[in-house]
Protein 1
Amino acid sequence: MTQAYPPEDGNGLSMRTLTHVIYGLFSLGLLSAGFFGIATIAAIVLAYLKRADATGTVYARHFDWVIKTFWWGLLWFLLSGLATFIFIGWITGVIALIWVVYRVIKGWLALASSQPPFAEY
């Protein structure tokens, strides 16, 4: 489905660049194994702050994608942490990490092709 999106006004960072920054910050937090966790928090805060500005564009879907990835990933990591007491948390933690990395890569590749990310059901 092809959809026309309004052009950007040219003030400040473009929405495309901003979306790349959000994916980059999120990835930095993941790649550093939490050492730069503040980068992931910064990505989510930035996505929340700019989501209203992106309404009606392809970038709004990307912001929603990153926000949902963060919250669902956090939920699964917390549940995996609790499950370590019954010795299956390590397995579910690895599965959750793979899922989050997959979603970041999929979203970033969709951004590179100027498409919104789509979830398979």
Note: Helices lie at 15-31, 37-50, 58-83, 89-112.
Protein 2
Amino acid sequence: MLGFVLFVVGVLVVAGLLFLGASVLLGRGETQPPADPERSPVELPVDRAVTGDDVRGLRMTVALRGYRMSEVDWLLEQFARTLDERDAEIAALRARAHPGPAAADADRSEEEPDV
């Protein structure tokens, strides 16, 4: 009978020590405070439009229980590709709406016959 009581006490002591160790190691369950909106480890340009290379250059901080890095990388690549396509389309539309001096000279030379 004494052996059984010592066994139960031993199991309770070991369980208590494991619980205490896990509590110290993992914290007491409090959540992290919200991120400060004025300070971010991710920086994007403020003086110009964001480009695909800006997005490709982003590096997120790694956390113990964060996102899967492969999924974040895939999403950033999709976002960068979308930005590149948007920029190319805007450039094409601007070129069509406001032809440059070379295009204007070509148009004038077609209109004026050579004498």
Note: The radius of gyration is 32 Å.
Protein 3
Amino acid sequence: MGMALSLASAELVRNPTAVGTSIDVGQIVKGTLYDGSNTEGSFKGDRQVITRTGVYLTESGIYNKRLTINLTIGGLFWFSLPETKSFQTRRIQFGPGVGQAQGVYAFGDADNPAAKLQFGLFPHKYSDSKNLGEYLFRSGTYPGVITTGGWSYLNSAAYLAQGVRLTVPMLGGKLTNDLMFYMERDIEPAHDISPAYILKVNPTSFLEFSGGAVWSHGISLDSKRLSPEVNENAYSKITNKPITGAVDSATVNTPPDQLGYYTFEGVKLMGTASLDFGAMLSSDRVHPGDFKLYSEIALLGVKDQPFYYEKKSERMPLMVGVNIPTFGLLDMLSFELERYKSPFPNTNGSVLQGQLPIPINNGENPYVYDPTDPRYNDATNPEYGKDPFNMTRAELEKKMKQDDWKWSVYARRTISKGVSVYGQAASDHLRHFNFTATPAALPASSRPGQWYYVLRLEFGI
């Protein structure tokens, strides 16, 4: 019996425990902070200090050379934003969390698997991005809300997936197939399953392409949540305008049988490409990855819907990035630029607070965001230059204006084994959390000229 136990225990190889901590400090140089609700309430965020401290512990092991198990738990000390005179916004907060709880099973030859099945809670990253991009899983469909960061200011350009992923390499690794079934956790309606597929092509060591699709909320146990039949989510099939905020009689008096309702369900597409000059020029001073161009484009919703989602070009974020060689000065230096031509604010207000698939916050009049409305452009119209809230055209445009362009600079330097320094400056889609841990409806740097920076010191063994 003792020999049997010895043989059984020998099948499990446990890896050394990994522990570490990270300390972040930075500043919102120019920005606007929101209180986490779906209202218009906001606070000037210029020169706001931002700090966070994280700790983590990872346990991992391999059973029978086939099943790898990883578990990471940790905690975060953080401050809520915006800061007010209330003590609730000025005291340090702490929250525990799970970074991963996953298993990976290898099929076939354990040293050269024919396929791998990954399951549980785990980070999924498919591109070279350091901050922007990763649209397929991190972005909404209807509406196309884009997200960066989260609880971690840095090194968070990945999606924390909950579900299963089957990876099948082909042609000696030149083709890789990924089939995923992930549960929606961050984008309403929660609990739905979104099937996805990604094909990655590596024709050479320095060139890579990938393309993918996800059927957002494709498998739902409560399909009524996908398209709520309420007035706030209704539009007229006669005029193709939302019922909420309507001022013309044709839309207001739409008969019930001519009402349509917006839906969360849809198909997202993405494509990536990268060219690694470092791999082409590989030398003592330039290594693979040091000098690399990469890009990603996505279509957040293939099917058009009236009024809000009529133009595909307004649902297509584009990101380009480059790793810049520093010849040993830094481990990594990258710059990323993004353009997203959506005419609506990048808000998650209606999604999180109202569970509605519309790109404006609850209670806001949709016509405020329609620059083609003839009431505002026809000088012979009594409503010329005004909107339902009596704002001038200039005020309306100022209210609507969001920054189509986003940028991010990222740097990393290893000081010694287990000690690294990171830096990031960006105008991106980072949303801060209020004292109830609710993310703001809008990013802090959503308008032109707004940006922040953060530095991190990280220890790990």
Note: The chain has one domain: 24-227+262-460.
Protein 4
Amino acid sequence: MIKLVIKKEFLNALRDIRLQVFGVVLITLMIVAVFVGKQKQKQIQNERTKAQSKMYDKWLKQGDKHPHSAAHYGQFAFKPKPVLSFLDTGLDDYTGVSVFLEAHKQNEALFSRAQDSSGMTRFGEITVAYIFQILIPLLIIFLTFNVFSKEKEQGTLKLIYAQGLSMKQLFMGKLWANYTIVLFISLPVVLITYLLLSNDSSNFDGNVASKFLLFTVSYAIYFLVFTSICILISAFAKNSKLSLLMLLGLWITSCIIIPKATVNLADNLYATPSQFELKKTIEKKVENGIDGHNPSDTRLASLKKKVLDEYGVKTIDELPVNWGGIAMQAGEDYTDKVYDEEFSKVEAIFNKQNKFTEWIGFINPYLAIKNLSMAFAGTDFYHHVTFTKAAEDYRRSFVKKMNKDMELNHKPGTAYTDYNVGTEMWSSIESFNYDLPKTNEILKNQWKAILSLFIWLISLLLLSNYLPKKISIL
């Protein structure tokens, strides 16, 4: 019996002019978004790869100079554009694309798209994720708002019930029929995306394949959750008009109002310091000590005494190593400690904001799928943080090597300009390379969003099994 209901609902939906128009528009939008987005992603990645190579080549050809001068000369780290980022741009437009790496400073990622764009950037761009999150639910609403209420209004629900079809069978038939239609509309873009990815064999590995699979499965669950909610509301609404109003109100609340309100509330609950405040705090702690009682000159004097005692000499000129290299690295270590402390505080605030949003996902599946979507596409906050940390580790590594060379090879007592190194030293520093987090890392980081979706799914399936018995045929 359920199969007959599914067939009947499926055919009725296909004859509906609303589905025909809306479906064609959505499929067209999704296909355009995929092709344009993929081309853009590939172009951006090529540009960043070339820029990384060019900056490294510039590093290799900087000429002979003192190693610490080279540390100030610095390098650039460019954030790679994730292969799946064209499906969901996430935070990529706001987080910056490159970091300048130099001695004594931890610079932030700059040159985000939002910095160079108009206010229209805040509205985002048409991506598969945007269509899946916002427009597909709207399609589901127009498909399902009257699947039950129309039967009541036309009096056919009584006839169906009289023929021995239970309300549960009718409900499940309507649910799976409309869900199948949604999957049918979404399938072309999934297949096209897979073909585009598989043709790019150099970038389509097991890690990307698993992320794409999880991305697709997550949205399939989201569609089922939303379809279930819509049909339940239609089943218990008094009429089609009320059902449509309730569902549109649900869509506006869950997809527009709650996400915006959640972000604003999280920002108010866990306020971040301004860039100016953060910079001043770091400068103050570097100069006066983290606790305010260990100024830089005192630290330097203490280090000097320790080094002299260690080598058993009375003056710097008697040291078998270069004091400047030791002092430079000690300054780096202390500065790194200050930056780590202050940046960890800011990161903790951002993590609290994100966790607040993740918990809200338990009452709004839109936020859960949004977090999962960005995570699998590689465009969420976690991916940005892992990139900046990788860049910082690279910065510390090459600066430490420059200072160590100065310490061991710059003859004590000679002038700063009397010691230079060249290409051999520069080529000993490999070009910056960053690997995106693996799938298992993402799953571990996004467990709340995953749990939220599954709780929504299981709860609605249980309700779909129990509530249809209470549907009135009048």
Note: Residues 2-470 form one domain.
